[in-house]
């Protein structure tokens, strides 16, 4: 029987989602705990691959098990997993899906958020990027509008990423100011960039944010984003920003609503 996991994790201390040799990863920890509790080898398939240091709020993965009674004991299973998993990983829910449901290929949209603070703030350092420049949010939003639609994002893709195609369809890309839960001051600027697409390339969001920051600093015009998309050259775009401020916040499926499968 196939199940979906909804998990959250803090990226620091892990070398991303996907299993690697001689490096701690979220996928490896989840597989190890599931295999131990279910008493059989378990392979987990995630909704995508997050890089080293990147965080996730609602990340989905699927796995198969012969333990049918898990359906009745899913709440207990969540409790047991959270008791064993490292502190940086938590299971939000486990629920059954149809046998051919796929956490990666069935996802229709994914949403990422990137956090920036423009004034030194010790309460934001762990999950926000400190950019000491006063960024022009309006200019960055004008640049972000060029990202919307189905386009080739080669200029924002990690070199030799190995993707079959660099075409993605972006449906949302915007900057907003926010008030941090802890700390913060009326004179400081806190920004969050939200981007939603049907798929993302390796390093894509961090490269986009780095390029938009160049616009925010006044070093490039908003129209530069359109030029980069046409140029299809990663070396022409801005530098990638650090991964610790990036969060995968939502993955959508046509048959799942509120962690329950729609029959």
Structure description:
With 263 residues, this protein is an alpha+beta fold. It folds into two domains: 2-105, Alpha-Beta Plaits, CATH 3.30.70; 111-249, Pseudouridine synthase I, catalytic domain, C-terminal subdomain (Alpha-Beta Plaits, 2-Layer Sandwich), CATH 3.30.70.660. It is built from five helices and twelve strands. It has helices at 26-38, 74-84, 137-144, 204-216, 224-231; strands spanning 2-9, 45-46, 55-64, 89-96, 109-117, 129-130, 149-152, 167-177, 190-197, 246-252, 256-257, 260-261. The strands form two sheets. Strands 1, 2, 3, 4, 5, 6, 7, 8, 9 and 10 form a ten-stranded mixed beta sheet that branches. A two-stranded antiparallel sheet has the order 11-12. A hairpin with an 8-residue loop joins strand 2 (45-46) and strand 3. The protein is globular and about 60 Å long. The mean pLDDT is 91.
Beta-strand residue percentage: 25-35%
Distance between the termini: 16 Å
* Coarse structural class: alpha+beta
Q: Which range best describes the helical content: under 10%, 10-25%, 25-40%, 40-55%, 55-70% or over 70%?
A: 10-25%
Overall form:
globular
Radius of gyration, rounded? 19 Å
Low-confidence stretches: none
Q: What is the topology?
A:
Blueprint lengths: L1 E8 L16 H13 L6 E2 L8 E10 L9 H11 L4 E8 L12 E9 L11 E2 L6 H8 L4 E4 L14 E11 L12 E8 L6 H13 L7 H8 L14 E7 L3 E2 L2 E2 L2
Helix pairs in contact: 1-2, 3-4
